[in-house]
Amino acid sequence: MRLNWIYVRDVSFDAIADLKEISYNGEYKTMDTMTDGSRLTGQNALRVLDLMNKNKNMSFIFEKFVGHDAQEKKARPKLEDIIRSNMMDVFKTKAQKKLDEPKIEQKKEEEKVEVVIQKKLSQAERKKLMKQQQQQQKGQEQQQQQKGQEQQQ
Q1: Burial per residue of 82-110, b for 16 or more beta-carbon CB atoms within 10 angstroms, e otherwise
Q2: How far apart are CA 38 and CA 28, in angstroms?
Q3: Which residue has the higher pLDDT, 11 or 112?
Q4: Can you give the three-state secondary structure of 20-62, one letter per residue?
Q5: With contact defined as beta carbons under 8 Å apart, do 9 and 58 qualify?
Q6: In angstroms, rounded to a whole number, what is the distance separating the alpha carbons of residues 45 and 31?
Q7: Residue 39 near residue 1, CB atoms below 8 Å
Q8: Measured between alpha carbons, how far is 15 from 59 in angstroms, rounded to an integer?
Q9: How far is CA 37 from CA 19, 40, 144, in A?
Q10: pLDDT value at residue 130
């Protein structure tokens, strides 16, 4: 949808108090309780445009931005102090955690756990490992035979 801005202007709530729209959940809402981007029926949209055209002495919303900017500049130092103090709390918490970390590491050292890592073997490595296991088994069998012979003698 292409939109051409003609002008942006305030309309007083008193002028549109009797206009109602159906919200997404089926309730009727007054225009002053609706949010930006709400759909208007054609009849209500024409009524609002008519009010904007008839009341030439209405203030333009952009004129109010200067006042809003002044209010923000006035409140900014207080907001920055609040932000700064909140950040200091965050830094203090992080610093305390770092001080507590050595205690945690000492506990970890006391509770050592053996970790076994299994590696996927290639076919050649598997064959080599099997030969080693077979040789170990043969060696163990030979040792058992020798012990058995020694016990018989």
Answers
A1: eeeeeeeeeeeeeeeeeeeeeeeeeeeee
A2: 13
A3: 11
A4: EEECCCCCEEEHHHCCCCCCCCHHHHHHHHHHHHHCCCCCEHH
A5: yes
A6: 11
A7: no
A8: 15
A9: 16, 9, 89
A10: 84
Closest-CA residue to 51 (of 19, 27, 77): 19
d(CA 7, CA 48): 13
Render pLDDT for 41-58 as a digit per residue (tens, 0 to 9): 889 889 888 888 887 665
Residue boundaries of the structural domains of the chain: 14-59, 61-100
At residue 39, what are phi and psi to the nearest 5 degrees?
-75, 145
pLDDT digits (tens, 9 = 90+) for 98-148: 777 766 555 555 565 555 555 666 777 778 888 888 998 899 888 888 888
**Percentage of the chain lying above the pLDDT 90 cut:** 1
pTM: 0.35
Residue in this structure with the two tokens 């770092």, named with its chain if needed: 98
Helices within the chain (DSSP H only): 42-54, 61-110, 123-152
